[in-house]
């Protein structure tokens, strides 16, 4: 940025490129960050969803392996620009959408991040409420309902939100230290739980003996749906991985860290969930996939307290990095003159509370369907970002121009039309399965369709417009 004059409406210290001298995340930091994110209640229960589709336990492992390898590849390539230039997603996306047009995918990503923060935080609230209620039964006596939630649940919510605020108060660069402890610790506790389950079940347990109910084309369709569903949990993070990779000191560190932390950790964690749940069938006669329900069913105060603390730790780990940090950058991008990271964090948590997850958490199928469509729109964004950086820009960006409204990436009054057109068309095609019942089969590959259509259309439209803009401005091709 030396010698450049960035537009104040597009620039502040939190959005500025991080110089190489200040990038101190190693492969270990990147790996432990992903360890902390992969271990959460939603991912734990995902195995139940796969088995409900008719897969055997071993087939669940195959679905997880394919999904997380695809995710790793998408994040590996999309993280490259963050590592090379030290810029976050909300700045990088200006290259493909223009400084004004970039606000559209940024707002979508920010909405999804705050929503998922709300979901995860309320899941942790239930765990805290269960723990305190078990240790101190008088806690449950505070049953007065306020705005649709009991007083004791409000007390638990205050504690959970305060814990998030405490972690965020240490700043984004120090979050790596928290994840360095949280990620491995959660997997260590999961290992202890698995050893306990193996002892109870005298082996992997009955779930591993359940045969597959899917064969032929039914298996193929369900496999595609399962892979897309697993990807859907992290599709939003596939676009904003530069928010983390900008802190990593080298390309080798980000690739190695993500390889260990993402597919490898997921393949370790999934059988842990299945084995532990297998033990619950022997103990209680039914599978218990929700960790909070399992803690309550065990009726052991010490285990409930310890297990609840682990659930809260896992939630803090995933929520901080996967939801709060991206949402902070997205809000800062909207108003860089007024917001910085310290101010954006409390705002994200306040907006998460306004989602009022306690009002719909147990009957949320329609809301999650709507959120799935919104998240699916980020498939085309992933394709557009990859096409822009690797095909159109050839991995070379004019970084100072990303902070200016007029210039190489300015487009038409701040709107780069190839990106917007590709985004709209890609999003419509990816959502056709939800809109047109006859095309519901597309839902099984919606994310892949969105990535392919968005990337292909953007490449076709941007190739000519970029060459024309370069010629008219007398600039050197990128």
From TrEMBL:
It is a multi-pass membrane protein. Its main location: membrane. Keywords: Membrane, Transmembrane, Transmembrane helix. The chain crosses the membrane at residues 33-53, 60-79, 85-107, 114-139, 151-168, 180-198, 218-239, 260-285, 305-332, 344-361, 367-392, 413-432, 444-463. The keyword Cell cycle does not apply. GO terms for cellular component: plasma membrane. It is found in: Membrane. It comes from the Bacteria. One of its GO terms (molecular function) is nucleobase transmembrane transporter activity. It holds the Pfam family Transp_cyt_pur. The keyword Lyase does not apply. Belongs to the purine-cytosine permease (2.A.39) family. This is Cytosine/purines uracil thiamine allantoin permease. It comes from Tanticharoenia sakaeratensis NBRC 103193.
């Amino acid at each position: 940025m030396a010698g450049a004059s960035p537009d104040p409406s597009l620039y502040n210290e939190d959005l500025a490129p991080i110089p190489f001298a200040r990038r101190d995340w190693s492969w270990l930091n990147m790996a432990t960050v992903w360890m902390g994110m992969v271990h959460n209640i939603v991912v734990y229960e995902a195995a139940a969803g796969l088995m409900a589709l008719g897969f055997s336990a071993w087939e669940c492992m195959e679905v997880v392996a394919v999904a997380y390898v695809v995710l790793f590849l998408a994040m590996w390539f999309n993280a490259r620009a963050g590592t090379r230039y030290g810029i976050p997603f909300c700045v990088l996306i200006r290259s493909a959408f223009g400084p004004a047009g970039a606000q559209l995918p940024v707002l979508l990503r920010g909405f999804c991040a705050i929503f998922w923060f709300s979901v995860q935080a309320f899941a942790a609230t239930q765990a805290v409420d269960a723990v305190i209620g078990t240790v101190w039964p008088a806690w449950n006596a505070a049953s007065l309902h306020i705005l649709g939630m009991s007083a004791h649940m409000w007390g638990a919510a205050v504690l959970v939100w305060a814990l998030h605020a405490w972690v965020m108060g240490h700043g984004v660069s120090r979050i790596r230290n928290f994840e360095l402890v949280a990620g491995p610790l959660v997997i260590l506790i999961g290992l202890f739980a698995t050893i306990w389950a193996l002892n109870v079940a005298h082996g992997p347990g009955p779930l591993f003996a359940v045969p597959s109910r899917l064969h032929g084309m039914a298996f193929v369709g369900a496999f595609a749906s399962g892979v897309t569903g697993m990807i859907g949990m992290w599709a939003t993070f596939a676009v904003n991985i530069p928010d983390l990779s900008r802190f990593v000191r080298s390309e080798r560190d980000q690739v190695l860290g993500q390889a260990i932390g993402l597919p490898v950790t997921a393949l370790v964690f999934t059988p842990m969930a299945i084995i532990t749940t297998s033990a619950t069938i022997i103990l209680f006669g039914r599978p218990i996939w929700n960790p909070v329900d399992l803690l309550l069913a065990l009726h052991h105060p010490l285990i409930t307290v310890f297990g609840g603390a682990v659930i809260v730790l896992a939630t803090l780990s995933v929520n901080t990095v996967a939801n709060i940090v991206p949402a902070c950058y997205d809000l800062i991008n909207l108003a860089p003159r007024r917001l910085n990271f310290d101010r954006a964090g409390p705002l994200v948590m306040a907006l998460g509370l306004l989602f009022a997850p306690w009002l719909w958490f147990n009957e949320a199928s329609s809301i999650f369907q709507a959120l799935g469509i919104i998240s699916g729109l980020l498939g085309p964004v992933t394709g557009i970002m990859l096409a822009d950086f690797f095909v159109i820009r050839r991995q070379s960006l004019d970084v100072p121009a990303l902070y200016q409204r007029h210039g190489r990436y300015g487009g038409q009054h701040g709107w780069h039309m190839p990106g917007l057109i590709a985004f709209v068309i890609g999003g419509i095609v990816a959502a056709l399965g939800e809109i047109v019942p006859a095309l519901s089969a597309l839902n099984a590959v919606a994310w892949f369709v969105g990535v392919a259509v968005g990337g292909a259309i953007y490449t076709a439209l941007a190739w000519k417009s970029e060459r024309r803009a370069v010629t008219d401005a007398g600039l050197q091709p990128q």
